[in-house]
């Protein structure tokens, strides 16, 4: 190929290249004039990452996302963050208190987030522990501080205390130092909660007054001494219409311990009094009457017991006809009891009332119908009865002596006149003449229609020897009955089993004469 040919070939190739370049630029410029706008678009969010804390109040977690389409032809860019962060695990289990990355546990739980339970303690309201077996009781059930506790906190256990609860023991009046098992009741009390009275009331003064015989006769005395001590009063009244009794008693237990904080108040005393009277033989009761002490001073009830002196005075109407050997028994009954007021701490300290199991004490006194001389030993065992029986007996003896002496004097004078016609002896007025002494033991001798009376002389009484007192059992006074001696000085007053020998004057019948 010639040089010219080569030159022409090069020129042609250059022209082709220029043409091709020109043609591509034109096409590109053409395409630019028809471009579509594309905006930026985010892709989906990724999964959340792990939390920075297991519990507490500061844990967070994060997630991210990428661009799905970038902006074109002037499209908008992607808006919003490419990552998100949110709180997580901000809690505490079972009432724990949250901190940055852990919890402070309360109650029966432990561990970082209070998710593990402590080993339980019976009757413990709040526990604490750092692992499963070192539990300690923070507060026992029924703990009201200074107002009282239903359980004593021993750390690893709760012991039941004496308290206001029904399943416990209030233990008052008493002391409870170390739990319900240590309850010690005060003297005179026992049973559950120490609310059983074991010691009865104390009886003090007692007096009676009997009215009878159509309201004419009265007899009064003391009934303070018990018939169980062998003491009895004696009266001589055939018909009893009214019995009046007055007595006093107290129930005041001494040296009671101070009450616990759950006891508001306690009231002890006599809550009831009763008088019962009965007419009795030796073996059975023939009549009775009972009355409640309605006129008691400070009349007692279980809600308001008489804490001072309980005084009862009552009239009992009867219609009793008694005979010798029968008796009236006076029975006094006093019941001791009361109540205690407890604060119920489980119910906003409302007050509930509990009552004591009451105890009745009895006092008996006997009044015997008949004659019985006072005890020879001073005044021990005597009652305040007016001894009307002995006054009547003395009056009867004096009257009998006066009549007998007068009859004997008369007979002495008549003897001297009728038998011998002599003038009566100057000593015929003396009932204790030598003739009478000589015939003291003989029977009466009749001369004509006249009767001679002989009276046994009185033996001399030593000046320094007191009269001998003997007991005369109650008997019905009848004719032809021998009586025991009332006094050694009155030996002449012993009728024999005859129709009152020597006491039959002519034309008169003295068989009805009886000692008064």
UniProtKB/TrEMBL annotation:
SS bonds (residue pairs): 185-194
Record Pfam families: TSP_1
Biased composition (Low complexity): 466-475
Region Disordered: start-end pairs: 458-516
InterPro entries given in the database record: EGF, TSP1_rpt, TSP1_rpt_sf
Record keywords: Disulfide bond, EGF-like domain, Membrane, Signal, Transmembrane, Transmembrane helix
Biased composition (Basic and acidic residues): 506-516
Keyword Disulfide bond among UniProt keywords: yes
UniProt-listed SMART domains: TSP1
Domain named EGF-like: residues: 167-195
Signal peptide bounds: 1-25
Entry's transmembrane regions: 387-413
Protein name, as recorded: Uncharacterized protein LOC109472312 isoform X1
Gene this protein is translated from: LOC109472312
């Amino acid at each position: 190929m010639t040089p010219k040919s080569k030159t022409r070939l090069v020129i042609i190739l250059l022209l082709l290249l220029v043409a091709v370049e020109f043609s591509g630029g034109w096409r590109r410029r053409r395409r630019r004039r028809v471009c579509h706008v594309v905006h930026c678009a985010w892709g989906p969010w990724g999964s959340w990452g792990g939390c920075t804390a297991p519990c507490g109040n500061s844990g967070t977690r994060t997630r991210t996302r990428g661009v799905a389409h970038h902006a074109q032809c002037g499209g908008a860019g992607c808006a919003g963050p490419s990552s998100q962060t949110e709180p997580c695990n901000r809690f505490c289990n079972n009432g724990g208190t949250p901190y940055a990355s852990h919890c402070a546990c309360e109650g029966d739980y432990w561990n970082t987030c209070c998710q593990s339970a402590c080993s339980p303690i019976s009757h413990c309201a709040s526990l604490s522990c750092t692992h499963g077996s070192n539990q300690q009781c923070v507060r026992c059930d029924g703990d009201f501080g200074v107002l009282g506790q239903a359980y004593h906190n021993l750390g690893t256990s709760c012991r039941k205390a004496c308290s206001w609860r029904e399943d416990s023991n209030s233990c008052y009046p008493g002391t409870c130092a170390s739990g319900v098992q240590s309850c010690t009741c005060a003297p005179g009390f026992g049973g559950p909660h120490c609310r059983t009275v074991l010691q009865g009331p104390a009886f003090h003064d007692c007096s009676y007054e009997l009215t009878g015989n159509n309201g004419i006769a009265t007899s009064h005395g003391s009934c303070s001494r018990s018939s169980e001590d062998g003491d009895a009063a004696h009266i001589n009244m055939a018909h009893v219409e009214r019995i009046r009794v007055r007595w006093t008693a107290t129930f005041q237990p001494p040296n009671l311990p101070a009450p616990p904080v759950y006891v508001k108040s306690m009231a002890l005393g006599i809550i009831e009094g009763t008088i019962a009277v009965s007419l009795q033989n030796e073996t059975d009761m023939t009549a009775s009457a009972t009355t409640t002490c309605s006129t008691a001073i400070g009349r007692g009830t279980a809600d308001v017991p008489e804490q001072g002196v309980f005084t009862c005075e009552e009239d009992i109407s009867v219609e009793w006809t008694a005979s010798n050997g029968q008796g009236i028994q006076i029975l006094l009954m006093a019941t001791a009891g009361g109540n205690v007021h407890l604060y119920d701490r489980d119910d906003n300290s409302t007050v509930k009332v509990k009552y004591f199991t009451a105890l009745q004490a009895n006092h008996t006194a006997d009044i015997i119908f008949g004659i019985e001389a006072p005890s020879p030993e001073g005044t021990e065992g005597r009652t305040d009865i007016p001894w009307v029986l002995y006054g009547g007996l003395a009056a009867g003896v004096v009257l009998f002596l006066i009549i007998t002496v007068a009859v004997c004097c008369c007979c002495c004078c008549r003897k001297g006149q009728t038998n011998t016609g002599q003038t009566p002896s100057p000593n015929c007025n003396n009932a204790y003449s030598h003739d009478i002494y000589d015939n003291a033991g003989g029977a009466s001798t009749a001369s004509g229609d006249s009767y001679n009376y002989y009276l046994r002389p009185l033996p001399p009484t030593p000046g320094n020897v007191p009269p001998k007192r003997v007991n005369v059992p109650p008997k019905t006074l009848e004719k032809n009955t021998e009586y025991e001696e009332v006094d050694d000085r009155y030996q002449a007053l012993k009728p024999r089993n005859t129709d009152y020998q020597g006491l039959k004057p002519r034309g008169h019948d003295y068989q009805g004469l009886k000692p008064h």
